[in-house]
């Protein structure tokens, strides 16, 4: 079976995210290590770390990963924001290290008032500086595929490849494949032939083995819209077939997959439970 989980809230403590994941029937969990809409971060305590690690062990939740702050933009041409983003990314890696989290998912960045080429170079230089400041870190950054909204980079596989080619130490980077984003970016996955063509394009760009995590989300917006709006599995524009192909692709059997779908309940049942049940029904 695929390794399936979801993004969970850390309200009340990091261990709460693990317990919520277990309650929903997850195998793995994603979380923020700080408020994702603030630059400042509350200090991590030994108690935080111990409770988080103990919950993972006790409940058998594996592959914990984190997502970085949405404020970070390593592609910014603005020097002040760029440096602030580097400092914040260093902290994200340090917090992940402290919690025993091996991967930090990050949107590559937006070039805003510059150009795609300048944005790629800026992101690569920013990542090199982050790596320079964290030489012993085991945790690595996973560049997430994006929908391509505005000037966000990473919506074409070739853009991710360009960043990986430009950094000094590409072995310290991986890729997180977001289904909604890839669909919104214009990569078809509904038929066997379309799915095969999309994975072939990805493999040609940077190699499918670079994928270290998946975000499983349907899309509220149509194919090729370049709009980032997540929907419950099978209730958006994608339908179930792309997920069926992905979940039965043996190449990704050991790669953890995390829901980032809307939270809530349906007929009194937690939506994460509903989505996980739907996904597991597609296997085999």
Automatic annotation (TrEMBL):
EC number(s) reported in the record: 3.1.21.2
Cofactor note: Binds 3 Zn(2+) ions.
UniProt cross-references to SMART domains, sorted A to Z: AP2Ec
Reactions performed catalytically: Endonucleolytic cleavage to 5'-phosphooligonucleotide end-products
InterPro entries registered for this protein in UniProt: AP_endonuc_2, AP_endonuc_F2_Zn_BS, Xyl_isomerase-like_sf, Xyl_isomerase-like_TIM-brl
GO molecular function terms noted in the UniProt entry: deoxyribonuclease IV (phage-T4-induced) activity; DNA binding; DNA-(apurinic or apyrimidinic site) endonuclease activity; phosphoric diester hydrolase activity; zinc ion binding
Binding residues for Zn(2+) 1: 67, 107, 144
Gene3D superfamilies listed in its UniProt record: Divalent-metal-dependent TIM barrel enzymes (3.20.20.150)
Domain Xylose isomerase-like TIM barrel: 18-265
Binding locations of Zn(2+) 3: 181, 228, 230
Residues involved in Zn(2+) 2 binding: 144, 178, 215, 260
Superkingdom per UniProt: Bacteria
Stored CDD domains: AP2Ec
BP terms from Gene Ontology: base-excision repair
Alphabetized UniProt keyword annotations: DNA damage, DNA repair, Endonuclease, Hydrolase, Metal-binding, Nuclease, Zinc
Cofactor: Zn(2+)
Job of this protein: Endonuclease IV plays a role in DNA repair. It cleaves phosphodiester bonds at apurinic or apyrimidinic (AP) sites, generating a 3'-hydroxyl group and a 5'-terminal sugar phosphate.
The family this protein is said to belong to: Belongs to the AP endonuclease 2 family.
HAMAP family: Nfo
Protein name, as recorded: Probable endonuclease 4
Gene: nfo
